[in-house]
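Supplementary notes (optional reading)

For those who missed the lab, this is the record we used. Protein: 2-oxoacid:acceptor oxidoreductase family protein. Length: 178 residues.
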Amino acid sequence: MEEKIIIAGFGGQGVLSLGQFIAYSAIADGKEVTWLPSYGPEMRGGTSNCSVVVSDKQVASPIVARPDCLIAMNKPSLYKFVNRVKPGGTIIVNSSLIPDKVERDDVKVVYIDAQEIAMEAGNARTANIVVLGAYMGISKLFPTETVKKMIEGKFASKPKVIPANLKAFDLGYAAASK
């Protein structure tokens, strides 16, 4: 088993954190993993993306040219990476910021209104966690409890935000599983 993922969006959307959640969850589940960030010089608003490779075997390279899954948090990221996704792969689109429809019929496309769902979870800043839940709902890469433990650990110093993040994860998972 090997899953190659590209996660892309604007700086400040939690793109790199989303990749780290997947990577750390994979490690906790006993998988081999690489996480490779890429971002512009801007702190917020610039481009940001990362690649994650999860495997049962040692990962030869962290470079992902042809992902199995693209998570696009904004329109420029969708158009930058859409044609790289392998046929039969998956594209998760943050439809809150991307009204366009993906014009490929050889991939599975899932539209997630991440901002709206994050507001429903009680914190607008949890959109990346909504998408994490959606990805897990589609991929079933490892147990949800593993990911939830990573969320709890990441926010252990801010326990007040843990319930909203866990709810965001569950709502994203449910939205993608429909």
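If you only remember one thing from this example: The chain has a mean pLDDT of 95.
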